[in-house]
Amino acid sequence: MSNSPRAAAPSPTDLLGVRSMLSEEERAITDTVRKYVESEITPHAGQWFEDGTFPDEIIPTLGEMGLLGMHLEGYGCAGTNAVSYGLACRELEAGDSGLRSFVSVQGSLAMFPIWKYGSEEQKQQWLPDMAAGKKIGCFGLTEPDHGSDPGHMSTRAKKDGSDWIINGAKMWITNGPIADVAVVWADTEEGVRGFVVPTDTPGFTANEIKHKGSLRMSKTGELVFDNLRLPADAVLPEVKGLRGPLSCLSEARFGILFGALGAGRSCYETARDYAASRIQFGKPIGGFQLTQQKLVKMAMDLAKGELLALHLGRLKDSDAGLAPEQVSFGKLNNVRVSIDAARTARTILGGNGISHEYPLMRHANNLESVLTYEGTEEVHTLVLGQLITGQNAFS
Prior knowledge:
Butyryl-Coa Dehydrogenase, subunit A, domain 1; 3 domains; single chain; four-stranded antiparallel sheet; 9 strands; three-stranded mixed sheet
């Protein structure tokens, strides 16, 4: 019979002790980003959401903190491991999904393809300023009529001498209205190609999409290309075909599978604190069985999501690497867990849950978009279904 001392009770916000599995550097990054979000973002996020504004003034700070393209090497990027990037995304999304989306699009969708597939000249021209927050990027793939089916995109790029002429449009583009550069994917005679497009190029227009009920603290736009002429060196030279944009989406989805948990945790912690102080029938509602059942389910689901995210992050940092199907697993599971936490937490707060004094409805509305962008539930389900059965159910 063991005489070892009883282990200390776990934290109510870390039931499985995931923090103890992190390195000292990973914990330091987590704490630094969390402190910044709690002091500079959370107090204002409700108003920014209500006003439908993104606080441009924070962008230089994000650059100074090394959060833009933080998992990339060189060119002024921080060069952290994948887990650190994921943890930073989690803390940013605890503030607001729009904040994490800005950082994720900048690093994983705009900087990553230039870093991975660009020429040395393209890297030198754009990456240092993007890492510092001096230049903003966006990613043009989704189209008005082709969201989940990029293989049938309508945007076309044709050769005209040594130049390229692009015509078409992209829709629901995060950072589009404030971007200095767009990584645009277009169909060509040689397959899908990526283009690095300065947004001041004649023929480029970015129209802001307003009247959104979700991701209101995020600048979203429609990109229109009207006989947009680019020089030959605007094309990303190291990739052809859908492999290029799909690899970028995997990078962004990795940030989401961590990030969504931040929004879920914020909802859980809000509900837990509220349940401890809200008095009904003569005692705190946290003392009632049904409230405890809700809190326990949220805590368990989020803890399992944290373990999943950390496991996938360790795979990404390992020699084995992370398969796209595993990214789909993480994105599908952890967004579901987080949106369930947002909805359940709202019920614990009752009528107060719809007030922007609390973050619950804001997170719930944001997560409705996170649920469908970077691959809908259906798309990720069919990705896993094809892996499991060997049958392609997309068509």
